[in-house]
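Glutathione S-transferase, pasting as requested.
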Amino acid sequence: MSLSTSKAPIPLYTATTPNGWKVTIALEELRIPYELKPLNINAFPPLSINNHGDFPIFESGAILLWLGEHYDHKHKLWPTDPKLQSEVTQWIMFQMGGIGPMQGQAGHFQHTTPEVNKYGITCYTNETHCLYGVLKSCLANKDYLVNNQYSLADIINFSWVVVHRFAEIDISDLPNVQVWRKCILIHPAIPKAMCNPTSPMVKDILKKANVA
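Structure tokens follow.
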């Protein structure tokens, strides 16, 4: 994402991935104008953006924190209380350092050579399920992760949990995680955000959730 001093739409370089959805969901929820620039994450050399006085931000978690601190003036996704802000930040770090890498590896091994990588599949699938268990514990008596209010903490973790089937993560024993996932899926901003850019996988997810 690249920020400039003008009020023009924010240029967003992204792809159809959970990390990309985090940002498009937040932008749609906050109704921040943005210009989608589809990105080929396998291109070489990688895209370099740092010109004309722009302020580029990379890493989806860092982008969410910037949007919360500088754009969420009505505190729809970023709370006012410093302790609650810290809780949201903790969940952002939890996803960035936990669910994202572990589930990403589980999906990688599932879809490369599964017959060879049985250890990798078992290791990363089990670890991801354990991390989902942390979500389950937090959601035991509430609908959302922080202060029972929808926030960036939910968006960043949802963006990976929503594609749990791709990595073959079973959530049948995590009923409150299922409810939380479905609750976020019906937010009006979700279909548009997850379809920027679109993909057959996204269409299938939204269709199964009856929000397509």
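Note for the archive: Residues 2-70 form a domain with the Glutaredoxin fold (CATH 3.40.30.10).
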